[in-house]
Specification:
With about 375 residues, the protein is an alpha+beta fold. The protein folds into three domains: about 5-145, DNA methylase specificity domains (Adenine-n6-DNA-methyltransferase TaqI, Chain A, domain 2), CATH 3.90.220.20; about 145-175 and about 340-378; about 190-330, Adenine-n6-DNA-methyltransferase TaqI, Chain A, domain 2 (Alpha-Beta Complex), CATH 3.90.220.20. About 35% of the residues lie in helices and about 25% in strands. It is built from nine helices and 25 strands. It has helices at about 10, 100-110, 110-120, 135-140, 145-185, 290-295, 300-305, 320-325, 335-375, and strands spanning about 5, 10-15, 25, 30, 40, 45, 55, 65, 75, 85-90, 90-95, 120-125, 130, 140-145, 190-195, 200, 205, 215-220, 225-235, 240-245, 250, 260-265, 275, 280-285, 330. A four-stranded antiparallel beta sheet has the order 2-11-8-9. Strands 16-24-21-22 form a four-stranded antiparallel beta sheet, with helices on one face. Strands 17-20-23 form a three-stranded antiparallel beta sheet, with no helix packed on it. A hairpin with a 6-residue loop joins strand 4 and strand 5. Helix 2 (about 100-110) packs across helix 3 and helix 2 (about 100-110) crosses helix 5 (about 145-185). It starts with a strand and ends in a 5-residue tail after the last helix. Mean pLDDT is about 85; it is low at about 315.
Amino acid sequence: MGTRLVRLGDELQLERIPVEISPHKRYTQIGIRSFGRGIFHREEMYGTELSKLRYFEILPERLIVSNIMAWEGAIAVSAEEDFGCIGSSRFLSYTPSENIDIRYLNYFFQSSQGQRAIRKTSTGTVLRNQTLSIKDFEDLLVPLPDSDEQRRIATRLDSSSSRIAAVQTAREHAQTLREALRHSVLSRAGMLRPLGEVIRRANSEEPVDPSKTYDIAGVYGFGRGLFERGPMQGNETSYQKLNRLSSGRLVMSRLKAFEGALAIIPREFDGWYLSPEFPTFEIDTTRADERYLMNICMWPGLWERLSGQSKGIGARKVRVSADRLLSTEVPLPALDEQRLIADQLDKLNQSKALSIYNDTNIESLSSALLNAAFGSQL
């Protein structure tokens, strides 16, 4: 594929059409998802509800770039359905010359090569505070084939992207059905009883040794279990104590329990550590099935009960106490029935794990297609 290096500013024109905000008119703002996932529309709101930023019209067939998240692939092409929406000054809108197929350019910026180029134009000392420099962006030299080749590649990637999106939509629908089934089963599982009848506080706190290395875990939100944060030297934390994990116990994030940051500790995390912000609880296995409680941890019905019992000011400072978890009522049928329900829900969890594995493969395929396209292999 023959290409020539082109300065972006010679082929793209920054378009700014100011919108005079009326307090009594309703507006729909756009947003751009990261990793090339396109434009979305926010809920309508009155002019009085908008921020103090400046706003501009969004027109179709423009390259729209988020100046604060471009480094993470928040770049997209506007479509007819975006006409009439507005974008804040954080969104840069570019009109292409006749030499540019903006679909091709958008795909280029989602490829590894394009992402590296974008990151060079984003300034900031903190990763999540990097802002796109308009001048550096427009001074970028990008490799462009002729117009026909751009259209050919963009059309092939459009076709592949549509198929991948259809698969992802089907998987999201399946996940919705899985969670609806879990909710239905657990909601009808039995009499509501306090969790404190089957679990008790069982922290295993150890004084921090500055010279020791600790394997630190974390707890995902939305019932997704534990993850590895990695090793940490004792002198790298301000905590005086750390909580040593034991498999088979229930662990909760005091800060994010209301968002489903609860789990049963699996064997592979036995002996790992968490901060004291993560209390742990021993399960009375004569009265509760570990697998059943794992599903309770994954159940939004529990999270909703905890969300109304959180304390703190501001979304990032809400905490759920250990006592509150113990007093929260959940369906607790007899032990034999818990085991039968757990058997049913295990099949759902296996299906979910397979779906997550397949999603990872699909993301890898999408990345491979983009890199092939811009490596003269498509």
